[in-house]
Design a protein that fits this description.
With 133 residues, the chain is of the alpha+beta class. The chain has helices at 39-62, 102-109, 113-119; strands at 4-9, 12-17, 20-24, 70-77, 84-92. It is elongated, with a radius of gyration of 19 Å.
């Protein structure tokens, strides 16, 4: 997969991938215009939505309604370093959700590919090259 990053002005940084443009910005306090989420917010959202797609697939495969099902993600950071120290995902299900699937739906969410990529991080290779004239 290839993604192209551009700088449309101010503190905005956009990524084009697969026919989509992912727009980012910085908050007002960071010199941006707060016109889009920060890149780190997208990172966190990718974890939650990835877990969500696994929960959705689990429910759909079993004919379980997703009405009233939602995921709530909470994060913790080290106050001194601001480093992310914990990501918690709570799968909230309605009273009608089948009891026998409570543990299984949690297990399904743990299959999230984004979570797995973080658990076994890839190698990063960053290079500077001159664009063709």
């Amino acid at each position: 997969m290839e993604m192209t990053v551009t700088f449309p002005g101010g503190k905005r940084v956009n990524a084009a991938v697969g026919g989509f443009t992912i727009e980012t910005d910085q908050p007002l306090a960071g010199g941006g215009q707060a016109q889009a989420p920060e890149p780190f917010t997208y990172f966190l959202a990718s974890i939650a939505t990835c877990a969500g797609i696994y929960v959705l697939g689990f429910c759909q495969a079993r004919g379980i309604s997703t009405d009233g099902v939602r995921l709530v993600q909470r994060t913790e950071r080290d106050p001194a370093t601001r480093k992310l120290t914990k990501v918690g995902i709570e799968i909230q299900v309605p009273a009608s959700f089948p009891e026998k699937y409570l543990d299984a739906v949690r297990h399904a969410a743990e299959g999230c590919a984004v979570k797995k990529a973080i658990a076994s991080p890839p190698e990063f290779d960053i290079a500077t090259v001159r664009a063709p004239a």
